[in-house]
Amino acid sequence: NAGVTQTPKFQVLKTGQSMTLQCAQDMNHEYMSWYRQDPGMGLRLIHYSVGAGITDQGEVPNGYNVSRSTTEDFPLRLLSAAPSQTSVYFCASSPRRAYNEQFFGPGTRLTVL
Amino acid sequence: AQKITQTQPGMFVQEKEAVTLDCTYDTSDQSYGLFWYKQPSSGEMIFLIYQGSYDEQNATEGRYSLNFQKARKSANLVISASQLGDSAMYFCAMREIQGAQKLVFGQGTRLTINP
Lengths: 113, 115
Description:
The structure holds two protein chains of two kinds.
Chain A: E1 4-7, E2 10-13, E3 19-25, E4 31-37, E5 43-51, E6 54-57, E7 64-66, E8 76-78, E9 87-94, E10 103-104, E11 108-112
Parallel strand pairs in A: 2-11
Antiparallel strand pairs in A: 1-3, 3-8, 4-5, 4-9, 5-6, 7-8, 9-10, 9-11
Chain B: E1 3-5, E2 10-14, E3 19-21, E4 24-26, E5 32-39, E6 46-52, E7 60-61, E8 64-69, E9 74-79, E10 88-96, E11 103-105, E12 109-114
């Protein structure tokens, strides 16, 4: 199993550009989520999904969209990039049982100029 | 709302000593899970240990143990016999059992092991 994969690993955008961060998992996990990690801080939840076709907002959803058309994929879209969105983005997945840990992808380092 | 507090921004420990990383939490839920993750300088998130709110015994995983004091709402991580490879950021997190099951993180503690 590849686990949770994220692409790209690094990305530089200009203010106002849009892009999609890709996330895929091959563990048939129902639960997937996106976090951002700013320097010296913990991870903050952006959006999450409890299954295909179901998404909801987390703590910091503004400026981001998600969709979940399949169990495997959970892309994160930046609609109009801003310097405040410079961060490291992590995707995670888990079975939908809260005692299971979330499995994290390797992260995407995004810089918005 | 759930909240995790880690009050130690940084800790320095001599190799082979035991170390305790503090974590307190706040929730109105009766059922929840507590997690510790390690983030080395390479950036990946590594799961270390889990404690359920109804578990009567403290969780242990090798050199890691979780000192769970429910009445005090604390879930401290204890690393025994620390090693140089333990140098990393450590995050405490909580996940609600019901509802959305969102995972909420603390701000982390940077642990440095000195030889």
